[in-house]
Design goal:
The chain is an alpha/beta fold and 244 residues long. The protein is built from eight helices and nine strands.
Amino acid sequence: MKSAVVTGASSGIGAASARALAAAGYHVICAARRIDRLNDLAREINGTAIECDITDAAQVANLAAQVGDSLNVLVNNAGGAFGSDPVIQSDPDQWRRMYEINVIGTMQVTKALVPALIASGAGTIINIGSTAGRWAYEGGGGYTAAKHGVAVLTETLRLELNGQPVRVSEIAPGMVHTEEFSLVRLGDKSKADAVYAGVAEPLLAEDIADAVQWVATRPQHVNVDLMIVKPIAQAAAHKVHRSS
């Protein structure tokens, strides 16, 4: 059976991607910090739960050890946004945390698992980026900087792995309504709800998981470099149709 690792699998896009890959026939190794949630998910999809904070090098090494010598798909989904202050009012610790998770964490997991991806003879890396890695917007300086980092990391990795049997893709979602992303970022439910107010159909985690499954299951000679996925209501970061 083919195998896949999904980081940040305890909720949102990560959990949905784990379910989608399991439905496509993969044995999914679900990695995240919240082991109680992971255990429930792993039981549901007959996968494996591994507690892993991707910013912790020792935990990443343990993940790689448990994955073993061969791996077919890596979904670098773990990430996050913290705060929405203007640049000149920003908290440097929030910026450091965003960079540590989104960029350094992605690098550490990729570095640890690339040997197994190469050994499989048909590996795929899917990095979950964001339209924030393509657009700037007010109040998003730290997050856009981190996600621009993910975008360039992905592009560089594709160049450096050229000639190896490993595809490298980025899926860049726009407005996705999950249970935690905006709440964690803004720290207040009313503020989080306001992000999606009046938007009839924002994307759901399952929409991005569908894209993950599609990219992973293309013929191995097909590399989807970049997929930008937005709800029809979102033309750009600054232009979202909202009902009155």
